[in-house]
Amino acid sequence: MGRNVRALTLREVTRLLTDLSGLTVSERQVSYLLITGGVGADAAYRVHGRTRLYGSLDVALARAALGLRAEGVSPQLTRVVITYLRDDLVRAWRSAAPLALAITGVQGSLEPVAKGRPSRVSAWVPLRSLWQGLEARIQEVADSRDDVWMYRRVRVSAVPRNTL
What we know:
Layout: H1 10-21, H2 27-36, H3 56-70, H4 75-95, E1 99-104, E2 107-112, E3 123-126, H5 128-131, H6 134-143, E4 147-149, E5 153-155
Antiparallel strand pairs: 1-2, 1-3, 4-5
Helix pairs in contact: 1-3, 3-4
């Protein structure tokens, strides 16, 4: 089987997040964060049942949200923090900086991991661990299928996507 586009459907993202986090994740939760919340790379409106595909950045942002959820942060605060820190999170992942997503009260920030978890922080999610091995797992899932359903079977490479 040839290498497919490294992008997953909503159902595949949900299954992958459930496997990676060990938490129960619903498609509605992922959709709420990435589409309704506008955090995903491709949150544009879809017509005629076109399938939306998610890349590694989308999955990493959803993993960050799950990490905050595991730390006891509310879904509303999680969405707000990830929305406002989205660009900083992307820069941190691209630079491979040893940072953690920290929540203090109702404010989120990126803190150096080297200093350790400060006592004032209520939630702490190291960023490197979220990205580690993620692209390989996404490629594994993407290689297991050749097409997606859009009212008919369509090659995954033919699905319109704003960013990959």
